[in-house]
Amino acid sequence: MILCGHFMSFYTLFLQLVSISVIRLLPKQRKVMVLTSLFWGLVPVVQLRAYQLGSVTLISPLCALTVIGNVIVGYFFLKERDNLFKKIVAAILIVISVILIKG
Fold first, then answer.
1. Nearest to 1 by CA among 48, 55, 54, 56
2. pTM
3. With bands split at pLDDT 50, 70 and 90, how would you rate the model's confidence at 5?
4. What letters, b where the CB count within 10 A reaches 16 and e where it falls short, cover 3-37?
């Protein structure tokens, strides 16, 4: 499972690097792309370790909250303004479900 996550992350990075559009990126954009791929490769490893060390009933809701973080990052840093109402409703539903699961 861990190796699969790493392999897919590096495979995705490789495909992006060899595509023509990515080769023309500025060095700063390449750096961001490489860092993003490496961090996404670490996500399954850290998540699996969290499941090993902690309680599943605690870790699963926290992992569900990462969606809210993605919406926030997309809104402020990537200027994703489309479907904002749907994203806010989805985030509220996620918070409610986490509260209900945690009980």
1. 48
2. 0.51
3. very low
4. eebeeebeeebeebeeeeeeeeeeeeeeeebeeeb
Angle made by CA atoms 51, 9, 82, in degrees to the nearest 5: 90
Task: Supply 35's token pair.
Answer: 């860092």
For residue 54, give the DSSP letter.
S
- Helices and strands per DSSP (H, E), number in the chain: 6, 0
Classify each residue of 86-100 as buried b or exposed e, where b means 16 or more C-beta atoms within 10 Å of its C-beta. ebeeebeebeeebee
Tokens 């926290």 found at: 62
Is residue 2 predicted with pLDDT exceeding 60?
Answer: no
Q: What confidence score (pLDDT) does residue 18 get?
A: 56
- pLDDT digits over 14-25, tens only? 666 555 455 566
Q: What share of the chain is helix, strand, coil (3-state, %, to 5)?
A: 85, 0, 15
Cα radius of gyration rounded to whole Å, the chain:
17
